[in-house]
Amino acid sequence: MRGWMQYYGAFYRSELLPLLRRISAYLMRWIRKKYKRFRSFKVAHKCWQCITGRHPRLFAHWAWTPCFW
């Protein structure tokens, strides 16, 4: 994903950012479906902020869009 971001980000960064936010939304939805304790949005959002704060380089696209709310 990192190479893809570098290539398309050089030319179409404004078009790439909504896609990266969408990838984050899919990750959040996956967390909420996989773990029962994160079913509520507030709890999942708090977990999301913890993860992005603790591991900001876990996914390549978090360097550009760490939090999508």
Describe the fold and architecture.
With 69 residues, the protein is mostly helical. It has one domain. Helix content is 68%, strand content 0%. The protein is built from two helices and no strands. The protein is elongated.
Please name the defining characteristics of this protein.
69 residues, mainly alpha, 2 helices, 68% helix, elongated
Q: Say how many strands there are.
A: 0
Number of domains: 1
Distance between the termini: 22 Å
Strand content: under 5%
Question: Helix count, per DSSP?
Answer: 2
Q: pLDDT under 50 segments (min length 5)?
A: none
Largest sheet: none
Order of helices and strands: HH
The percentage helix is 55-70%
Give the CA-based shape: elongated
Roughly how many Å is the radius of gyration?
Answer: 13 Å
Helix/strand/pairing category: mainly alpha
- How much is the average pLDDT? 87
Summarize this, please?
With 69 residues, the protein is mainly α.
Sequence-ordered SSE layout with sheet pairings:
Layout: H1 2-34, H2 41-54
